[in-house]
Design a protein that fits this description.
single chain, alpha+beta, 4-stranded antiparallel sheet, about 15% strand
């Protein structure tokens, strides 16, 4: 799995502060670091719509199609994904779930099945079958690449949903990486303040934040 932050609103937290202060006619109170307390208070008080003024885009590579199917369910976001209709997948790479990889027997079964699918896909292409039809053979494990853009409020919402002990392992790992990168650029918004006040499983988020986000 590879996660790259490719774009983010310039001075994203100061930008949110500026937009939010128009609500209170308090632009004159802005200082170099006034956004830290101001944004934390906004989040605590549930004034979350102002977080929609800043955006971030990520390039996400080498996740499974199974993971991307979950990812694109986030409706207030924009996606562009590698097309199996136009891209030849004759040498497709794939994800092996840890539970399968840790057992020699299950890993062998898994790899044999993948090899069979690769051979069948390539034979269809050689026989003149279009990629858009041959792709019906491809497994959910197939690696894909996708770009994703969302505003800060939506990123917080998705992190809340996916960085959960109840989430599937791959998408949870993905959003831990995304959370890390967002925290580096916007540490006030992407601290644990939102989750402390609005998450149903804050203790789990706190553990992840302290061990994998804040300390990274």
């Amino acid at each position: 799995m590879k996660v790259e932050l490719i774009s983010i609103t310039l001075d994203s937290e100061k930008h949110i502060e500026y937009c939010a202060r128009t609500c209170y006619n308090s632009l004159d109170k802005m200082t170099a670091d006034s956004h830290k307390v101001f944004l934390s208070n906004l989040i605590k008080n549930g004034h979350l719509s102002v977080l929609e003024h800043s955006f971030a885009s990520f390039l996400i590579d080498e996740i499974s199609r199974a993971c991307s199917h979950q990812l694109v369910r986030q409706r207030i976001a924009s996606f562009s994904q590698r097309s199996q209709r136009y891209v030849n997948e004759k040498n497709f790479t794939f994800v092996i779930p840890p539970e399968i990889e840790e057992n020699n027997t299950t890993k062998e079964i898994y790899l044999e099945s993948i090899k069979s699918i690769q051979d069948a896909y390539n034979k269809l292409i050689e026989l003149g079958i279009k990629k858009e039809d041959a792709r019906f053979l491809l497994p959910n494990a197939t690696h894909t690449t996708i770009t994703m853009t969302a505003n800060f409020r939506e990123w917080l919402h998705i992190i809340d949903l996916r960085v959960s002990r109840h989430a599937q392992w791959e998408i949870r790992d993905l959003f831990i990486e995304i959370w890390k990168k967002l925290y580096e650029k916007a540490p006030t918004v992407f601290s644990d303040v939102y989750f402390l006040n609005w998450s149903k499983d804050y203790e789990y988020k706190k553990e992840i934040f302290e061990t994998k986000i804040q300390s990274s």
